[in-house]
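User:
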Amino acid sequence: MRVKPTNIVWHKGKVTKQLRQQLNGHKSAVLWFTGFSGAGKSTLSVAVEQELHRRGIRTYILDGDNVRHGLNNNLGFSHEDRTENIRRIGEVSKLFVDAGVMTLTAFISPYRADRRMVRSLMQEGEFIEVYVKCALEECEKRDPKGLYKKARNGEIRGFTGIDAPYEVPRNPEIIVETDTQTLKQSVDQVLEYLVVEGYIEE
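Assistant: Predicted structure:
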């Protein structure tokens, strides 16, 4: 069990999040893409980032696989490790939002409690949950990494949707149905939300 240090103090700088947002000319928040493996989270987040960048918005993507190559390379896929994975990403996302960056994350993040925990780290309106909805059957058909096949064959244990649960978001800000929409339609839906809610300009 880790002992939490008691001799540390948060140091505040003179440049605030609001000043960074003012310099950037737009608000900052985290777009939290969640859904089954193969639902299209990474594809959608990349396409949304491209469009935001084209519009002059400062962005950064935190992708599940990428983060596990570095920051979280000591974590597995047990329930506890999944929770710690999301906790760390939540803290990193919070720092990016504080830096004034529109942050996009693409993680299965199957547990509501974990997503709720990340939301609690942010100020009101800074956590935008994007449920990338796609039927499990379609995700299995796509199976871009061959993971479903391995899970069905028993080569992978604790795989979301096969022998581990995915808890569907109850009240996400955005629901994108990638098994019935084109990529452009999905991107447009996310961008429209950001415009209507005042995060970015038209």
